Amino acid sequence: MLPLRLDSTDAPLRLVALAAHPDDLEIGCGGTLLQLTMTVPRLSAELVVATGSPERCAEVRHAAELFLPGRDVRLHLGGLPDGRLPAHWEDVKDLLEHTAAGRTADLVLAPTPTDAHQDHRLLAQLAPTVWRDQLVLGYEIPKWDGDLGNPQLYVPLDDEVMRTKVELLNKAYPSQSGRDWFDDEVFYGLARIRGMECRSRYAEAFTITKARLTW
Predict the structure, then answer these.
(1) Is the whole model's pTM more than 0.85, yes or no?
(2) Which of 57, 27, 47, 19 is nearest to 143 (CA)?
(3) Which helix (H) or strand (E) holds 63?
(4) 123-150 per-position pLDDT tens digit
(5) What three-state secondary structure class fits 107?
(6) CA–CA gap between residue 140 and residue 142 (Å, rounded)
(7) d(CA 75, CA 45)
(8) Which of 12, 46, 53, 146 has the smallest number of Cβ neighbours within 10 A?
């Protein structure tokens, strides 16, 4: 397996992270956010959450403080109806375009294009149309649909980062406690499988639709 490294210099890294719902991002790539926070001194982030009630959006704000502590974070909360994003295509596109306007991005995190949930899939389809010249990685979200695929990129997570991810998920999103998919064993189980696939204890996995190798 070939390693791909992010620069660990003092160069700034501008991250854009897209989520259809509160908690999507932290479930799919919360460990990666923690890793970036620990290893990139000049990290800034634009976080987009397309749906969510005022109560759920308050959880999003708390999650941003927990997963990206001390970083320059801008939140873009769409407030669109859950489960209906394809019917609000123009609003979603405008939300993404507004986020991208006048700003550059080095890395974009979005749902994977093969996600079975229509809200997730729409964001995945639109992300590369807005950020055409950036690296777009698709994160996976375990769910009832059983739509997990074959990722191409892995972010190894050590025991402490994985434990912190799960602890912060429970702390940030108490409204989801008791749901069958919001479960510590689900989070650890998928991370363990992805870790085994990349010779690590735990990992988060991503899909790539297009990338360019440069020197």
Answers:
(1) yes
(2) 27
(3) helix 54-67
(4) 999 999 999 999 999 999 999 999 999 9
(5) strand
(6) 7
(7) 9
(8) 146
